[in-house]
Input
Amino acid sequence: MSQYKIIFTGPVGAGKTTAINSISDSPPIKTDAAASDMTKSRKAATTVAMDYGIMNLSGGEKIHLYGTPGQERFDFMWEILVNGGIGLILLLDNTRADPFQDMKFFLEAFDKFIGETGVAIGVTQMDISTTPTIDDYHVQLKTLGIKPPVFAVDARVKNDVSVLVQSLLFSLDPGLEEEA
Amino acid sequence: MSNNAKSPLKVALHAMDERSVRTMVMYLKGPCQGAAVVVDEASAEVDIFDGDNINAKRLLTEHLAKPSSRPVIVLSLQSIRLDNVVLVKKPVKSEDMLGALAEVKARLAQQKINNPPVSVDTSLTDLPADKPVLKNYTINTDEQNKTSKHQTAMQLNEAAFGTYIGNVQGVDVNDPAQFANATYAPKDYFQGYIQSAINTCQDKNENLQLHSGWRQLVLFPQSHEIWLDADDKELRAFASLKLEHAPSKKMSLSPFKTESLALTNALEKFHSMDAFVWKLACWTSKGRYPDSINIDHPVYLKNWPNFSRLLITPHAMRIAALLVQEPRTLGDVARLLNIKPQYVFVFVSAAHALGLVGQARREADELVQAPDFKPLQKQGLLGRIISKLRGNKA
Output
């Protein structure tokens, strides 16, 4: 049976682990460790290998949810991770110094995968830092020539993550309907 | 077995912890087809550094200062330029990694003839320091208590449409023969007054209070918020009233001093301006479309609405996905998605109120309306994921 997966990526502290936890049917397998370097200023523990969650579908299929490690020094795994993926969820932390730079970095890093599938962007921490706004992100994306969904997201809220993933799937095929 | 795997390069890893060393071992064995194997430092031919490790700069400097003739590969986000160092830019791609390994292999062959000491380029000390990742901001607890503003989306299904959005009397908006009559004029409703007030407060960049003869409403252009002393049920009822003949038609704006009312005691009454206008347009439309839209001309979506903070009407995300790709007429959208036109009309009304909808005005634009889209092979699977996400299936 084919292995279907959705990839969650983004910088340290953007909420990838939490987002996977929000929609996973089983507690995600976390590989967090005490942060000992630059990530320490962002969160006490950070993901050093990958997060993994699973969604069980009717009919017995499983959708695997993979989170890339937040620390960029582990990103040689990305190429392996995206192989066969359905699409990419990019989470950005609005409290970081330059979230646009983060966005461009990840869009460029996953350029090939996004071109073959699709991407939906969730902006987290907007209740803490209200700027840049979602409109500002669209302005930046326009210069890159793409129009993906960009939503404000609280990674702890299942519905926020659900809506974001739905938008990714509808981007891939607007003709999708709920399966009975 | 590849040629590389027959005589793999022996590499030592630096500035990596145990977990990343294990991952690197698997990476070299798998995607890099065994072109290199990880060995201890004493046996290695090549050294590989994680250039973004916090200690990388020091370790690399110390390493390059040693009288070693071994080539060095650095994996980094930064564009590091050092003598005898091969940079592999992150995110590392197998192709790049294999290229770097081939390059150092060639150098090793050359070094058998001539083995010069590795010199340290002065630019090493100029390695860019990590950029500060923290933004300067003050945590505003008031912002976090604006519960309506940050409320997650409500996703309506078809069954809930009539109850929550409502229907218009006297016209069947789903009958193509009656499409011409399925319009409404936003300016005749509270929606039009609100949109006009928003334009004014944004032009003046000033907090304004709208005097409508109804509930107190204040607009905050800088924070892009609206404060309304009414709940959704009351707003929904008021939204559907045609105001052109009502005594309250005359509405006015006046400057609003923040300190003149203790709004902070009712933070839950703050709404995002966009979310407010969006739902107001849905309740005003009731499945009709704005009279400024030409039903025969294709429309397009400038960008996706921020759905996670909006009222999601039935099929709204499908319609958005379609219209963000190509311009289409409203009737064509309904036909392609096999949905009732009222769902297209209500979505377009809300998106139009936010200025997200554009319409091809020239005759020639009609000719370039997009062809039918091609469904994905995995449509069934993706549909089951949608069902799962909406909580319909365990």
About this structure: DSSP finds 14 helices and 16 strands in chain B. The first strand of chain B starts at residue 9 and ends at 14. Confidence is low (pLDDT under 50) at residues 116-132 of chain B. The radius of gyration of chain B is 31 Å.
